[in-house]
Amino acid sequence: QQQVKQSPQSLIVQKGGISIINCAYENTAFDYFPWYQQFPGKGPALLIAIRPDVSEKKEGRFTISFNKSAKQFSLHIMDSQPGDSATYFCAASMGSSYKLIFGSGTRLLVRP
Amino acid sequence: ETGVTQTPRHLVMGMTNKKSLKCEQHLGHNAMYWYKQSAKKPLELMFVYNFKEQTENNSVPSRFSPECPNSSHLFLHLHTLQPEDSALYLCASSQGTSGAPDTQYFGPGTRLTVL
Q: Which of A27, A111, B13, B103 has its CA at a distance of 20 to 30 angstroms from the CA of residue B7?
């Protein structure tokens, strides 16, 4: 119930293509869904986040799509660039909890 | 220095050694966290401190001992570790605001190898 399942484990996309990473959860009490981006040698950094009262949030080339009934959310990276090559983690938390439940991560490689 | 810093960045230790990891945040935050990041596994929350008080211990073995002397500093004391404890240990901090999503800011991590 506390798990967040993330797929795929790795993804290779050509420059200019769309990268899509999916996450699914079971606990309907989750109400905050952030995505973190991690470059080699660095800690994860918040990329974009969504609350379940909206179905989509866009920030530049990054979009979160949220499907509350399916208990799924996804990250779309439009016009993917080699600089986007990193590991992406979805996460979820509930209410006032400080506790983030992370997915297992997706290693994205964008080929030039 | 800005953000969240961690020292050392790399550590190799034997199973009988005692060592400590240090984390410092320069963001004025009230909550601090230790995570363990192993290959192909989700980030595992280990400990949470809020206003210097430990609020979460995620069933972490006693060979890991956290210490939070003030809101800016967090330590992880290590003793008699096992090879399976080899991982990247990440520190994070956040505002610690209750009732609202709380963005966590991560340090670069300490890569620990236990021989």
A: B103
